[in-house]
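Q: What does the assembly look like in three dimensions?
Context provided by user:
Components: two
Sequences:
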Amino acid sequence: MNRQRLTGSRLAAIFLLGSVLLNYPLLSLIDSQADVLGVPALYAYVFAAWGGLIALMVAVIERRGG
Amino acid sequence: MSQAAIIAVSFAYLAVLFAIAYWADRRADAGRSVINRSSIYALSLAVYCTTWTYYGSVGRAAISGIGFLPIYLGPTLMMGLCWFVMLKMLRIAKAHRLTSIADFVAARYGKSQLLGGLVTVIAVLGVVPYIALQLKAVSGSLNILLHYPEIVVPTRAAALSAAPWHVDSALYVALTLAVFTILFGTRHLDASERHEGMVAAIAFESLVKLLAFTAVGLFVSFGIYDGIGDIFARARLEPDLAQLLGAGGAGGSASGWAALTFVSMMSVLLLPRQFQIAIVENVGENHLRRALWMFPLYLLAINIFVLPIALGGLLVFGNSVDADTFVLTLPMAHHQQGLALLVFIGGLSAATGMVIVETIALSTMVCNDLVMPLALRLPWLGLNQRADLSWLLLLIRRCAIVIIVLLGYAYFRLAGEAYALVAIGLISFAAVAQFAPVIFGGLYWKGGTRHGALAGLSAGFLVWAYTLVLPSFAKSGWLSRDFLEQGAFGIGLLKPQQLFGLTGLDEIAHCLFWSMLANVGAYLAVSLARAPDAREAGQALLFVDAHRLAQVPGRAPFWRGRAEIEQLAPLLNRFLGRERAQAALESYARRKGVAAVEELPADAELVAYAENLLAGALGSASARLMMASVVEEEPLGLEEVLNILDEAHQVRAYSHELEQRSQELSLATQELRAANLRLQELDRLKDDFISTVSHELRTPLTSIRAFSEMLREDPKIDLVDRRKFLGIIVAETQRLTRLIDQVLDLAKIESGNAEWRADQLDLREVVQAATEATAQLFKERRIALDLQLPQRPAPVVADRDRLIQVMMNLLSNAAKFCAGDEGRVVVSVREDDAAGVVSVADNGPGIERGDQAVIFEKFRQGGDSTTGKPHGTGLGLPISRQIIEHFGGQLHVDSAPESGRRGADFWFSLPLKAASVN
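A: Here is the predicted structure of the complete assembly.
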């Protein structure tokens, strides 16, 4: 049960992290003129942050030993 | 492409869906469920992605750049909270057999039929625009495809709605979808409202739409252009498109972004179809775990190509083609007939998935929470006399499906053309968000009441309708535009999209602000106006404390009731059908260990079980009503409910106490174990002691016996020998006596039974007396004795006899170990730091450092025991040390023979105490 709660709390923390990363005002910091590997920086940032959040969730959920 | 071919392919696709559903149902009946895995669960959750995602996202992206994304970021974030929220909803819904969101809300607030009805109405009306969106997308894509290879796209304002209804493809699409849903979802009645076949088909559809969309994405990115980077590079050159790449577009306002994220977070849990798939159709809780990341991954995958397609479309068509159709028109423009058909099928799968699950969920709500409660109240319908009503339930649901789809069509005709796909969908999202306060409030706050929920929902719904739905009618010309521009009744403050003069928000954020304000405000204010009644409090507890209550076995239902099985069985037969009712009762009887259904005890538990069964088919509120008609029931008063709650608390308290006790017990066990260990050690010491004492006693006894026997056997021993022998016997006897005295003395001291006197003494006097008493011994052995006493008295508090005993022991030891003639013993008394120190130093062989500790142990003597004869009992020093320590002093020895210094210095110290202090 404790392990479950811990996982839940970690996921909730990911929620908070995502709420900040994928929201204004952080989004307005991205330079709309810049490109990353040919992809507009904003677009690249949002997808990278999104993918990063999912990777974190995988790490938390699939963590073995509990 | 001929119309017939397209229609044939569409129906072939629907047939494939049927085959999958049929196969999955068969597998489920055989006990080998195909949907019993988290990947299928995650895929079925992707029913969230409809034609909105499939066609609409591109259209949205063409206007606002990344502004289409919050709709998918919200659910991703929500999955983080779902571990707590969804698991709780899942457990509650399973425990109470809640089969829809209306049922959930009704059950939470005291099984209120009125509330269930209101939620149903809001859900149906709220979701109607969403269904219209599917119809618009499918019929639109069909119309475009029919003109292949020409791209005839009605621009948004085109008067498609002017076409007479009977040639409108949307109507036929709607009817087809309705029939398909009926065949799909309401073939038979299931007590748990679960549809394994449907879920399998939905999961398949999720794959199809993802594949089709990705195919288009790849084609546009790599077939038409030179990779995604190429598209972006070209877009940068066009000023109109370049501004889509930054945060500046219409999706770029912070409030709009946050509002979309919020509504999508709510919708992914509260949309009727999401509730159906995520909660009702869930096979096992453990599937939720992995779905929490698989579902967001799906959302990510289906969104990667949205912006490239949008930009690619804009580069090709500019504004001449509706961006909502780019997914289809781009392949068509490049004469990809097969791909265009695949796109159409993908769109069809996105739409059918949504319409099937949504209308099934809604029809269950309409039937259980709206129609049946009303029908059961109308005596002239005679429903209470019918033997089997399950056909009626099915009929109501089928009609509900048709009506809901037709409502969607009506909305499409009335308002659909004025909006892009995403804008229509958002109207529904905003409606569904109205459920959030009553659901989340109900899950975590016990104070919410039925009236509060009614007030909150109504207020939120009215504001939603006023600020979003009516304007949508006005924009499509069905209502006067004056309403939009001048406000209702010409009052400027009532302008529906600038309510009370609020500007600067987009229409969704504007609607959300006012509706949530009204909703939450009314919910809280009315809930707090009065305390929850008994039933509300009971249900609140079951929901809010769901996790904890699940751990208290055999909890009582919150009312008392009795009903004979003869009354309950017909009721169940009527709504579940005879076979299923019988099977359910038999399994209950087996669980109770009763041989036959007829022998089941008529108690509250049976009634609760029957009500639960009925709730699956009828909804909790109607089930409550039906049970009340056959059960002699005394509703519990608030006090009794509180008692039951108290009991639950007590059970928890007991278990807590039990835990504490067991902890104390284990602590005590540890202490006992330690004590036992100590006892064993002491026991071993005692055995050692006894064996050593016996050994010590045996040595003198043996020699006494040997000499005595010699004297007896041989009477002719001469007098000199005889004297010598007798002398040895006497000496050994004295030694024996001394030994026994000392053992007894030591035993007394150790057991604490010794008698101690505490007199005021002068150390000098004691030492003097002791040396005088042993002077003869030293004289005999010709050892010089040197006594050094200070001038000042050294007052101590001690037992004089005991101190003399210590001194005698030390002196006789010193005498024993000094060689005759050159032996010299120095006895001194001095003051040292508030202590009187008495030292007896000899010039004998000294004591090895390793032996210095040993000599103070019982029966241990210094030196090599094999060479030297024991010189004493081995008890003198231990006893002396005990005595000195008893009076708060210390007894030590200083000696260092290994460094060449001869002799040993035994000294003890006693705290100095003047008589006046004492």
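Follow-up: The two ends of chain B are 123 Å apart (CA to CA).
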